[in-house]
Design brief:
Length: 467
């Protein structure tokens, strides 16, 4: 078909599904199973609502994929992209050149990040940002004359992206199993998951936080402190299931990093730009990182962009002693992406969305989530800012999980889809991260949908004799 003579045509759902199944390999998908079932086709969106090709309205409690923080359809971002496309759609930053949007965004990021950050390295995504982290961390120690410091410690069930380095830093065993990962000199410790690891041992959250942090020190000593380059973690693990660590965890991790002089990297791809009620997750959870990866919320997902905030400890060494850093991407500092990010950040500032999450919608969501504790299916429901997780259990009092092959989370997710709600399942943990523009009334609407889906899942579990 000639694309010029035949611009994108409206097709019915079945026609979209057939073409999708014939040509489009989706991320993290069983291609064969999806082709048989057919994709859901999303055709438009506004504010916090999506619409699919069947005309169903869906409340998007996942902000797309943790990114549409300012909501869909914002004219400010669209106009910024259009104006920049007309003015200068692309120029690179390789040839000792720069474009105004990239410079302005670098300046604005230095303003909205903690004071140790005055420099940024741009990438096209969060995964690429974490590839940059690996390169930069190892380069830093090389320049300092300690090339043996190569090992980066991360955590099981962490998500740091899907490139070779991103997936290696991540702690997803299913990802490591495909492709011979992790790459050398990346090692993992257990995650600070109180409900799964601390509660069964009868530990308080505070005790467990300190214990989980001590696993980092144990690993440093096992590897040899002189070989450890950095520790990386998401302030709150997102894709792993919104694992909110105890308050004692990050300050203890920080103290251990300080004790051994190793770099601390905060992967802020989800937690950044207001998600937890501060601009950065590290501010909420209590660490002072040397590097921060960002992506997703930087443009509210309207256009791809990522990067690494480089703290002065690292920046100074690379700038003053490093010489040429042999790393970069065609789209590092892409002018259109940077223009959208500028509009997005200014919108977040103007609408005081970070404060709104901290003082208004975050506390309201927490209050509403607390009432879910009474539901027979809910073992635990917790939030931080506008992230939340609900653990579905077989026996509420003892927190006994369902057999994993029952896939209760998927049953619940099915009900969500059927009832016009996007809530994601990570195993039997149901998670949400709605747009930061969500109102109290919309939180009420979301909660009543969540309740309905939990009830329907409970009814299924009873009917099938699972409880
Ligand atoms: C999504 C995500 C990434 C990867 O970002 P991409 O843009 O998908 O490459 C990295 N880290 C975290 C914490 C993420 O949630």
């Amino acid at each position: 078909m000639n694309a010029v003579l035949h611009p994108r045509q409206a097709r019915d759902t079945q026609a979209w599904q057939a073409a999708d199944a014939a040509h489009f390999l989706h991320p993290f998908t069983d291609f064969h199973a999806l082709a048989k079932k057919g994709s859901r086709i999303i055709t438009q969106a506004d504010n916090i609502y999506l619409r699919d090709s069947e005309g169903q309205r869906i409340l998007d409690a996942m902000s797309g994929l943790w990114c549409v923080n300012v909501g869909y359809g914002r004219a400010e971002l669209i106009d910024a992209a259009t104006a920049q496309l007309k003015q200068l759609p692309f120029y690179n930053a390789f040839f000792q050149t720069a474009t105004p949007p990239a410079i302005e965004l670098a300046e604005l990021l230095a303003e909205v990040t903690p004071p140790q950050f005055q420099h940024v390295f741009f990438s096209g995504s969060g995964s690429e940002g974490n590839d940059t982290v690996v390169r930069m961390v190892r380069r830093y120690w090389d320049v300092l004359g300690q090339p043996e410091r190569k090992v980066i410690i991360s955590r099981n069930n962490a998500y740091h992206g899907s490139t070779m380095a991103g997936a290696s830093l991540g702690g997803m065993s299913g990802m490591h199993a495909q492709g011979g990962l992790p790459i050398p000199d990346i090692t993992h410790i257990e995650q600070p998951h109180w409900y799964e690891l601390g509660r069964p041992q009868g530990l308080s959250r505070a005790e467990f936080g300190r214990l989980a942090a001590s696993w980092l020190e144990k690993k440093i000593l096992e590897v040899g402190p002189e070989r450890v380059a950095a520790f990386i973690g998401e302030p709150i693990q997102g894709a792993g299931g919104v694992i909110i660590p105890p308050e004692t965890y990050w300050p203890a991790v920080q103290a251990i990093c300080d004790k051994y002089g190793i770099l601390l990297v905060s992967d802020e791809v989800i937690c950044g730009f207001g998600r937890t009620g501060n601009w950065w997750g590290c501010e909420t959870l209590g660490s002072k990182p040397d590097l921060m990866t960002f992506a997703k919320g930087v443009t509210s997902g309207y256009i791809p962009l990522g990067g690494v905030m480089v703290g002065e400890r690292v920046a100074k060494v690379l700038i003053e002693q490093g010489g040429e850093f042999n790393h970069g991407y065609t789209y590092s500092g892409h002018p259109v992406a940077c223009a959208v990010a500028l509009a997005n950040i200014r919108l977040i500032q103007r609408e005081r969305l970070v404060e709104k999450v901290r003082t208004e919608t975050g506390p309201y969501l927490a209050q509403q989530f607390a009432t879910l504790d009474e539901h027979p299916l809910v073992g635990n429901a917790e939030t931080c800012g506008l992230m939340g997780a609900i653990t579905l259990v077989k026996e509420k009092d003892r927190g006994t999980p369902f057999a994993s092959e029952l896939e209760v989370g998927m049953v619940c997710r099915g009900h969500c889809f059927g009832n016009g709600l996007i809530m994601r399942a990570v195993g039997d943990r149901m998670i949400i991260a709605p747009p930061l523009v969500i109102t109290r009334e919309q939180i009420d609407e979301m909660m009543s949908l969540i309740r309905r889906c939990l009830d329907l899942t409970w009814a299924d579990a009873q009917a099938r004799g699972w409880v």
